[in-house]
Structures are given as structure tokens and as C-alpha cells.
From TrEMBL:
Name of the protein: Dihydrodipicolinate synthase family protein
SMART domains listed in its UniProt record: DHDPS (SM01130)
PROSITE patterns xref list: DHDPS_1
Keyword Nucleotide-binding assigned: no
UniProt keyword NAD, yes or no: no
Source organism: Paracoccus fontiphilus
Family in the record: Belongs to the DapA family.
Protein keywords: Lyase, Schiff base
């Protein structure tokens, strides 16, 4: 059975540009949206952790999602993140996504409460009933302390609205499990340094924060692996991208690196909202060198085939 929404390509979880006073820089966000559409990404995500959702109110998150949906104007699918500690907040975000005409929601485990799989499933199904949109699950036990295990997947996977899962556990055995036992739930790469493995196991999409700053390079890996089936080329591109992924994932300053990377491209990203702080000069310099080398190497691979 064909799912209600096919996950294909590169989906960018958008950063939130801020002014110095912490207010939204919507002009900068509009410029980023246009840049990503022009680059050829396949979808946009509002209200993810990359967008600093933890530092925003429900009302602010809805304001951002509405702006992104209206600015995109049907040119790309827009997926709205609904992750929140309180179920009523997640429901409010999901209902808002439906009312503003978003294409789907991204649904994670409520943080901090550490629900059982059964409790987590009931929470997800309550949000499902409230909005009726296609749902992409978000498995990120490193942040939520809870895995969307087989008990959870067996229960929520019965809903026709559950069409995909962003898998960010880092456990390669989860990739095997999803590919073999849950083929009706489209698997999307949510662990950047395993993108090649995800594509080898049949994933057709990659939800990657790094595409805020390097959309063409992320598209190149998807194109080589998922479209062309050229994994030799894919390995070379992946090898060139791994230094960036090490900087993003292992430095403890993931969002800071993504936002500075956007600034390097000539767009505004602005400061972080507390409690996070920006990169220092040495960190910025190291990231800039990694970006320069990556762009040069991937360009040589794609142009030389």
C-alpha cells in the first residue's frame, strides 16, 4: 500500500535565526528558506531541536511554523515538530500544523518523563487522533532516554497516519530492525555519520541539520546512493563529509556549529537563545576549515563522477 506521503530526498530541520535581543529574525529565515529551495532540498522541518524548540513557547513555535508554511507556499512539503514535555502542548502544535496546512508532523518521545513503551504509544496515538496528519516518528533515545521499541512500533504502526520514522539512536541494529520488520514505516536517516548505511538498507530520505549550510553536498550523497545506486561514489562523498559530522556530533555544540555554518554561507543566523552560547574564535576557525575542505572535495567528486 502506498503511504499517504512518500519520504524522498533531503529534509532540512531549519535553524531559527534570532536578533541580538532574542526575537525572531524572520527576514533571515525567509532568505534561508529561499536558499534551500533554490539548492534543491526536498522538504523543510519547523520546530525541531535544531530550531531551538526547547527555548521557545508553544505560541512562538506555531508562529514560526506558520511563517515557514506560508513562505514555502506549497513549493516543498513542510513538516512541523510537535515534541514537548506535555501532551496538551504536543496536541496544540499538531492541531496548529493541521490548521495552517502543513504536510506532516514530526513526533518524538516526551522528554524527561521517561514513559514506558505503552505510555509513549498512547501519547503518540492521542496526538495522531487530534490532527490526522501523516506522522514521522522521531526515535532519539540519547535525548529522550526512551527508545521507540518493538512494543511501541507494533502499537502505533497500525495507524495509517504513521508513515515514517527518523531514526537517531546511532544503533545500526535499529536500521536492520526497521528495514526487515517494519518495511511499512519509511525509514529516514537521523544519524548523519550513518547516512551511507541507511541508504544501503533502503532508506530514501535523510533529515539532516547540516543541510542548512551545505544543502548541495548532502543532496550529492543522496543522489549518489539512493538515486544512482553508486555506492563507490557515495563512499567517497561520505568520507569527505565525515570530518564535518565529527565536528557537529562530538563537540557538544551541534546547533552552534550549524548556525555558524549558515553565517559562513553569507546568511544571518544570529545568536543562540539561553542556555546555549555561541562558538569561540578557535571553534569557528576549525569549523570554517572543515567546511572549505568538504566543499572542495565533494565538488571534485561530483564533477569528476
Amino acid at each position: 500500500m502506498t503511504p499517504r506521503m512518500v519520504l524522498e530526498g533531503i529534509y532540512t530541520p531549519l535553524i531559527t535565526p534570532f536578533h541580538a535581543d532574542g526575537s525572531f529574525d524572520l527576514d533571515a529565515l525567509a532568505e534561508l528558506i529561499e536558499r534551500l529551495i533554490d539548492a534543491g532540498v526536498h522538504g523543510l522541518i519547523s520546530g525541531g531541536s535544531t530550531g531551538e524548540n526547547y527555548a521557545e513557547t508553544v505560541e512562538e513555535r506555531l508562529e514560526l511554523a506558520r511563517f515557514i508554511t506560508e513562505r514555502t507556499n506549497g513549493r516543498l512539503p513542510v513538516i512541523v515538530g510537535t515534541g514537548a514535555m506535555r501532551t496538551p502542548d504536543s496536541i496544540a502544535l499538531a492541531e496548529g500544523a493541521r490548521d495552517m496546512g502543513a504536510d506532516a508532523i514530526l513526533l518524538g518521545t516526551p522528554p524527561y518523563s521517561v514513559p514506558t513503551e505503552q505510555e509513549n504509544a498512547l501519547n503518540a496515538l492521542a496526538i495522531d487522533r487530534a490532527c490526522g496528519l501523516p506522522i514521522i516518528l522521531y526515535n532519539y533515545p540519547g535525548r529522550m532516554s526512551v527508545e521507540m521499541g518493538t512494543t511501541f512500533l507494533d502499537r502505533v504502526g497500525r495507524s495509517k497516519n504513521v508513515i515514517g520514522i527518523k531514526e537517531s539512536s546511532g544503533d545500526i541494529n535499529r536500521v536492520h530492525l526497521l528495514a526487515r520488520d517494519y518495511p511499512h514505516i519509511q525509514m529516514s536517516c537521523g544519524m548523519d555519520d550513518q547516512a551511507l548505511e541507511f541508504f544501503a538498507w533502503g532508506a530514501r530520505s535523510w533529515i539532516c541539520a547540516g543541510s542548512n549550510l551545505l544543502p548541495e553536498e548532502h543532496i550529492a550523497l543522496y543522489q549518489a546512493c539512493a538515486v544512482e545506486g553508486n555506492f563507490d561514489k557515495g563512499r567517497r562523498i561520505m568520507s569527505a563529509m565525515l570530518p564535518l559530522m565529527r565536528v557537529l556530533e562530538q563537540g557538544g555544540k551541534f546547533i552552534q556549529c550549524v548556525k555558524h555554518g549558515v553565517e559562513v554561507t553569507g546568511l544571518r543566523a544570529g545568536p543562540m537563545r539561553p542556555p546555549l552560547k555561541g562558538l569561540n574564535k578557535d571553534e569557528k576557525r576549525a569549523l570554517e576549515q572543515v567546511i572549505r575542505t568538504l566543499k572542495t572535495t565533494v565538488k571534485a567528486i561530483t564533477e569528476g563522477n
